């Protein structure tokens, strides 16, 4: 279905229209090879859509190979703007067979290889009332809070583990949801925010039964990570985190057992607080491993997180003064060098910035052993909580979480008891060595892995990250993830593990630390924005 | 905050970077004059975003003047792709202060006037969990239907006038919603769809108390019309209509008193059915004017609408055979010529297509007089329904609907009685002259008016359209709006007003009519898409 483009005044660049329609035909046929050939080769080719801008032909080709075809559509308008004999912009308006309209803007350039797309920008009206990977239900608002209060005007995304009156809890598993009844009342953690004037926008997604930190749910999809095009959002609080990152909510009400708040905060450049174990009531919450389960929040800025924490921790004793900063000795963390370097640079900047940093790193022990003891005790409790349900619902869970529960089912009482002793000893040792200290470490072992990464890669990053996050889990300490580090242009959180009941003091300290480290980063950012980085022209 | 763009290999087009940053500064300052100067003059300049593609500098300037500024943002990446010494593409990635990311793609060209944008494409991640102009609450789904049935897999947007169990009815007015209690059960019209296997996606917006056909709600905003960039969506069923047009729902469950289904169907190129008055139960529905209130549906295609109508009308007697087609004599309609011409052409094509069209047009009387009698009786009943509430809630309604109720409050019982007699006489006269006929007329007097049009313009188009829609209202006949006509590239519905209890037969006939008239239109469309229309190069 090709035709001839004719311009008044100028002749059409020969062959452009044919190339344009060849591309459209290949797109509708999902002829990946043809599409790849019609995109200019090399690292400068651009393709952007709602999930972000992909730079480089190979990155674009990988996206296309994983996508599995574009929605059926009709092109209703084509506008050509000529720039030169060998370059033109083609703007097309599209109408999807399933409803909605879109726009496709392409810069075509002619080389020895013929006409190819050097840059493409695709957008479309939302195909759903809401993004099912982020939200299960939402409203304007779904639940209105008190008309007044310290959180007046703030909107909350509630992780689908908390009771919201009038709705059942889904916990990220369709067959779990269908087996639940509607909750008669809000969980206390929800009610506290409503009473303080916040409103609930909706119920946001979680990894299955919160037993993952990747953020990809096999039933509802993988939320976008606005900070890392193509990157995992992090979990298990993936819905609340992405909702906050997108500005669809100001606050994410979530849980953190092994890192479910700190990991998505780190991957998406958000602020996250895991509270002191037991400090916030967990009634009306589907548990994973009560020994480690905590309630906490995500926000785009520290001020909001502090406001919310003051409300959520109103009933908990809080100590004044966070204590002295000290680095966790990461000899056994097996960190990738870029993350280690970014962490070292940040720490090195604290002294000159006037912070009292203990020159002696705190050796919390072999992080591999800590994680193993944590993992076994968590698995044992997770099976106690959900084993019966999992066994009664074969096929209800995706491969990765199902495998995790299968492993959990094999943990013996003796193994659990041994691991339990190891956790207690580790806790005592760490508290002994870290008394009066706020421990510094990276929130995650890496930036967000690619969402298309194979399970083995995601599993490896999970294991490496849990070596870091388990320090707070084992000690029951509060932990903040502050969006301070940058690795390869992607955010990584700086973790501050404070003293028990030092939640607010630790968060306040984290805010000061971020403020002290930010200027440097802001200058870089400004530099980046004011001076487009050098670009090589495509062939 | 301007800087120098440097390319490897090629020199930067001189002044481009400065122009780019000048544009960004003007955007953040909402300096409309500077923005207009930085966009190329003339009818070929392009600007596209989620609400559609605007063509021509003046159209873009008008949009900008009405917008009131862009969201605060930071540019995080800039990529330049050079096309010639005087032309380059600049792709910027943006991060909104309020969360979310976006992309801006601009083709800059240099003329005697300096560097100017010849084409721009802007997109952004959704700033809300859902579009508040379309939805009040939504889920995945909000209410699940039976696992099986003729509507299995179909999703429904319910107009916010129907009872949905667990939610209050809002009727498009915030203070009305706050005064309502949660509905204990679904309205029968909702339950029927659930029982047939459809699911409810959510509760969609309506004009205030359904007393408008414009589709702009002063409290919740104006939904987009995907078929007409910048055009009104039509109302009062604006939410369900736009939800269906966007593919966010397959079916809109709505009401039609004076045209609230047919008008948005006509403006957005959808299929709409207003059922025989009284054929579908109206329990659990907030009324406007019971004498004219009807339940009906919107869909993207006739097959879906027919499936839904069969379910929704299951309890109603239906006659076989629609009857003979006949044109309504529009001597008193005061139609704009382009609409009259499109209607004439469609009618002229019916005979050759094998349809039995009565050569004699049906004179239903002076449409101005019909509308006046309809208007007065509707107003009298609307005040009886809502007058007490409106008086008790000063300031609760927007200017236009408030004025409509104020006028309604002044209708005396004598005026109402006289209008009532006129309606009855008109009904008898029309039924006498149209016996056994399916009446053909345009669904609306024009395509969708511009959403930025002043109230007087919108009010005039309303009055002209209601002269057409009131024929079904006065007779209680079913009416179909079929997306058959095109005026200036925008859709206009072909209206078929069938015999009472001939809903399904009339819809089936409308489907045949559309199928007979469509091929011609499809060829045009294909022609349009395969051969980009001639473009003049910008200066």
From TrEMBL, chains A, B:
Keyword check for Hydrolase: yes
EC number per UniProt: 3.5.1.4
Hydrolase keyword on record: yes
Single GO term (MF): amidase activity
Gene3D superfamilies: 3.10.450.50, Amidase signature (AS) domain
Keyword terms, alphabetized: Hydrolase
Region named Disordered: 518-539
Domain named Amidase: residues: 145-503
InterPro entries: Amidase_dom, AS_sf, AtzH-like, NTF2-like_dom_sf
UniProt name for this protein: Amidase
Natural source organism: Luteimicrobium xylanilyticum
